[in-house]
Amino acid sequence: MFSVSKNPTIREIQLLYKQNKATPSQVTQFFLNRSKQVDKEIKAVLRYTEDLAAIEAEFCDNLMNQYKEEKGSAWFEELIKDYPLFGIPYSIKDNILVEGEVVTSGSKILQDYKSAYSATVYLKIKQAGGILISQTNQDEFAMGSSTENSAYQTTHNPLDTKRVPGGSSGGSAAVVASGQAVFALGSDTGGSIRQPAAFCNLVGVKPTYGMVSRYGVMAMASSLDQVGPLTNNVYDNLLVLRVLMGKDPNDNTSLFVPELEKSMSQLIDYINQKIFNTKKMVKTDQPFKIGLIKELLGEGVEPEIRNRIKEIALELHNFGHEIAELDLPLTKYALAIYYTLMTVEVASNLERYDGIRYASKVISEIKDPELFFTARDVGFGDEPKRRIMLGTYSSSSGFYDAYYNRAEKVMMILRQQFQQAFEKVDLILTPTSPEFPFRIGYKSNNPLAMYLSDIMTISSNLTRTPAISVPAGLVTYFDNQALESSKLPIGCQVLGPEFGDDKIYKLAFEIEQLVKNLNR
Ligand code: GLN
Fold this sequence. Notes:
Radius of gyration: 22 Å
CATH topology of the domain at 10-271: Amidase signature (AS) enzymes
Bound molecules: glutamine
Strand order of the largest sheet: 1-3-2-4-6-5-10-11-9-7-8
Distance between the termini: 33 Å
Number of strands: 11
């Protein structure tokens, strides 16, 4: 019998194979059993993909036998070189298509919609040896910061089950944090990977726009959406993103950036050689110049969070990096820009759900000459409706110039400001979230308060730049409203310039080690 730790890494699982302690089918069964047990309380899983998992696991079993037969003593090294995610059970957010499976984007309007084809990201993970075991809960059409906007269920934060796991990829974060899967895919339009990662003490990345194909990912705001991994450590995250990235002929916004692909592969090799062979802290590069943004470390940020980020900056300074203060005055408008541009794209993208195409059972029961209206009325929850109305308003004739066009102009200036900032510094350090994971129900009736959760994360979507959230440790937090204290996680965010995805991983990797050394 083999054992698996509570939050296993990819390496831990693959060592089971190397040491002949388990087969991929056995490991998959183990995770399915564990997940069904754990998820009674967490409620992160919408559906298990057991039949598919069995097929993918069997494929891996056969592959393992084949490599053992053909490659001799180096079979394992050869195997993971060809299949870097070999035998790893993972979960996928419910807005990513998997052929033949029900996929709903957390919405009733797609309740029993079955995908006709698979997303590129799913196919890439499959080709790398991953085993899909479940589809995870999310805010409806990825709109929200707590996963409470799901039409199906409320997911609980595994670190404190009275609290939300963040959102909109809250289900993906919760399955990884509760050990139900080794990693999960999420999507990030304004922070939906990074904020749940911060709330669940995980690593989550939003890559440079275009690094990862959006083909087969249900669109929220197409010019901002990116898929990325949620993992237990930085190395795993890097490994999964390396598999995901690259040009896809099916998505003409996806990009081939050969230097970045190469440098990501080199970083994987470097960490692989160093980290697993040394107890000392590992540096990954020449010292960076790291910017701290005044506007994002002031009022409105919980003092414990602010202090922790400053402490990390100080440690990074002691470690040889240079720290500089930075002004990015336009970040205070980022929220306004985002909620203007994003809602317009949402209104347009969600037009296709009309009750005729992508029909579902809820809709087919409607006997009504006004089918379109009734279908949308019954099928959409409050948040999509709110955003469709806002987006329709600000893109309608007479208002277009005042809202959409203006927001677009300010966004272009924000992009310039970011470009200029990255001429002065290599990377920027901010909190991922200004607040701790909040209690379930605490904000669900206050959309504006919920929108404010995104203040730290949306700028990188608007500026197309990469950003990663890495755990900055736990603190004991006293909740003034609930009058009780609990141990809650803090996320530290590293922002980089466009195509600086390798750089954000380098710094995140050092922060991960620092936090471990500091025993936070
Ligand atoms: N919380 C943000 C929103 O509600 C982010 C959503 C996302 O990144 N998908 O728009």
